[in-house]
Every structure is written in structure tokens, then in C-alpha cells.
Amino acid sequence: MRSVRARAALGATVVVALALTAAGLAVLLVLRANLTDQAGLQAEVVAREVAGQLALDVPYDRLEMRDEEDHPVQVTDEDGRVVAVSKDLRAISGTGTDRVTPDPSPAAGSSADGDDDDNGTDDDDSGSGTPGRGEVDSDEPHFGNGTATVDGDTADYRFASVRATTSTGVTLTVHAGAPLAAEQEAVGTVRGAMLIGLPALLLVVAGVTWLVTRRALRPVEGIRREMAAITASEDLSRRVPEPGSRDEIARLARTTNETLTALEASVERQRRFVADASHELRSPIASLRTQLEVGAAHPELLDVPGAVADTVRLQALAADLLLLARLDAGERPGRTALDLGALVREEVSQRTGDRIAVTVSVPDSGPDAGRFEVAGSRGQLARVLGNLLDNAERHARSAVTVSVGAGEGGGVAVAVTDDGAGVPPEERERIFERFVRLDDARARDDGGAGLGLAIARDVAARHGGRLTVEAAREGGARFVLWLPGAG
Fold first, then answer.
1. Domains in the chain and their CATH numbers?
2. What's residue 109's pLDDT?
3. CB 219 within 8 A of CB 207
4. pLDDT digits over 50-65, tens only?
5. pLDDT digits over 259-282, tens only?
6. 318-325, long-range: CB < 8 A, 24+ apart
7. pTM
């Protein structure tokens, strides 16, 4: 089952079916228990009425039993013998004995007149001639289910058993029943209604869930179709439709569009990078080829220093492009601990061909003295420092300064300052883009390919730091590299 709508409809139907089945069973059990208790209460009332008569020594054959057809009665003595039954009772079960033929106990007698001389009493028993009085057991009666046949009709009954004691001390048990037909009919009616209504209700639930899920997933289908069209056309400028709701599907559409925007920007940057790289590589390669072709035809005209310079420039550009490719691929720098102060001194000492001497400021004493340790790649950080110094050398008039000190948040800050023309505020972010050179009229050999600052910022970001530019007090540009401390 591959359809989300089908799975949702099936799942909702199964859950509702289980819930309704459990609820239906509970309703049936509660209904049956209540109706059974009502029948038991009716049986108890009848049993206590008969027991009250027995406690008053009413003869068995004169017991008054109401609704004998609906409430069969059976009276037994201590030995389990049947001493009285209701009229038209032909069979009974569930009371302890199935006998329905009275067998009066001699001890109980059949008359309470007290006038017969043969009744085993003498004149000294009672001077008043008033009959004695027994009692009815006040404890909770015993209940049970059984059947009874009254006037040829057999039915189920709820029996209540109540004990009574006559004035002569004879204990009798009255078993009175109440019909369970109403309970069975009510339970059957409810069960039938559930069996008929449950499938219909489940069909409604399945249909409604199908329609609701279909409507809810309609925007998802629109997103899928648009993404398929974008994939087929390779047009990353297209966007998926965003529903007006604020639910998960709307957030999915917005996230998808944000992903498409980022992907479009990435592809555009890649295309521009390839185009700019091709353009930058074309010039040194063409110049080198021209010089080699002239040298091949006229060896005496071969410009060896120019060919070497073009080769060096081509090599540097290829190295820059390779480093940018590694950075774009997500290469993580090493985590070697190194001292930025020592690194700055070492890199500056190796720059013997600079046009302007670089002034280094690294505190050796005072509150800012100490080791300025960071964690990262020594080669990449040296490359950043070299690119910043190369940029300062190209633009400085008479002074280039590099300083190392404690930065904010426990980090280390390296500042490279020149006294050149500076960077206009509106261009301070643009200069970190690839192949960007503010002076378009500047010669390529003097201005470079426009990759140095882009590489420096990317490397700084990979190390968890940042590279910014601001105006120097001397009037030039001040590039500040901030890196987190090694701790």
C-alpha cells in the first residue's frame, strides 16, 4: 500500500473500529449488569414478601404470591425439601434443587390455627391463643441465574434467595425469580444496532479520512509536480507553490523554496567561478603560448623572464583555484595548536622582496604579552596572512603594519594595516567576493586575479573565525582577522 491517503484511511478506520468495539463491549456489559441488577431487585422484593408471610406462620398452601407467571417462587426447608411452589411452576433450575412438587415438613405443619388437639401442643404453651412470630434474615440475599417453566413457557430468570425463620424455629429458604427477557431483549437490540451501525460508521470514517487526507496532501502533490518539472527543465529559478496555511506543508514548501534559492545561488556562483577562472587562465596561457611560439620561430626573440613570470602567475592561480575547490568541498582544517605571534614573525621574515618593509607589532611584555595560541592549519593560516600582506603591499603608499593581540571573547586578533586609499564603505563586503577587483583599469599583473581576499575569508570561516575590513587611522585600510583561542 504505497498511497499515504490509503494508509491514513486504513489506519484511522482500524483505530476507530477498535475504539468503537471496546466502547460497544463496555456499553453491553454495563447495560447487562444494570438490567440484571434490576431483575435481581425485583426478585428480592418478591422473595422478602413471601419470607415475611412465612415468618408470620402463614400456611404454605395459603401463601400469597403476586405475579406468579412473571415471578416463580420455590420454598425449601433446611434439608432441601420443597415445601411450597408458585402456581403453574412445572420446572426450575438455578435454585439448588429442580423439584417443583411440594413436600411439607412435618415440623413446619400446614396450619397455624392452634385449635386442633392433635397438633402436638398443650394448653400450657400459650395462654392467649395468639400465633407466634418468626423473623426474616436481614443479610444480603444470594443471587443466581437459572430457568423456569411456568404454564408451559420456559424462560431465563434472575433468582434471589432469602431465609426466613418461623415461630417454631423452622428455617426456610425462599427462591423467587424475575424474568431476564427484558435484559436479553435490550442487550440484543443494542448489539444488533451496533453490528449494523459499526460497518456503516467505519465506511464513513474511511471516506472522510480519505477525502480529508486527499485535500491535505493536495499541496504536497503540487510541490512534487513542480519539483519534477524543475528537475526536468533544470530551471532553478522556478519555485514550488506555497499554500496560504501555516501548517507543516506550508513550512515544507517554504523550506523547499529556500533550498532552491540556495541551490540556485550556489550553481550561479559555480558558473561564475568557472567563467571567471577560464577568463583568468586564458590570459597567462595565451601569453605563454605566444612567447613559446615566437621563441620556436625566432629563438633570439624568446622572452625567458616573461615566460617564467607567466608560468609563475599561472601556477599561483591554479593553486588558488585548487584551494577554493577544497574549501567549497567542505575540507576541514587541522586542529594543530600554534602561536600566531610566532607565525606572523616567521612569515614576515621570509618576505624579502616586498616593495615596502612590513612593521610587526607583537607584545613581548606588559598585560597583553604571552602566547597567542589558536588551533588550525598552519599552512592555511599562513596563506591568509600572506594574502593580506600582498593586498596591503599593492595598495600602501609608504607603510604596512601587522599587529597581534588579544581579541574579544578570549580569541586572538591579527590586524594588517596600510596607508593607501582605503576601501569605500559600500565596497567593504564586495571585495571578499571571488574575482572582484575594485580598480577595473588596473593591470592584471599588478592587481592579481581577485582571489586572495576571498580565500582569506573562507579560510577564516573554516577556522571558526572572521575577517573584516575597516578604515585605518592613517587613512588606509585595516583588515582584522579574529580567531578563537586554542582553549
1. 1-105+132-234 (no CATH), 248-326 (1.10.287), 332-483 (3.30.565.10)
2. 44
3. no
4. 999 999 999 988 888 8
5. 999 888 888 877 877 777 777 778
6. 318/281, 320/449, 320/451, 320/452, 320/455, 321/277, 321/451, 323/380, 323/383, 323/455, 324/273, 324/434, 324/451, 324/454, 324/455, 324/458
7. 0.50
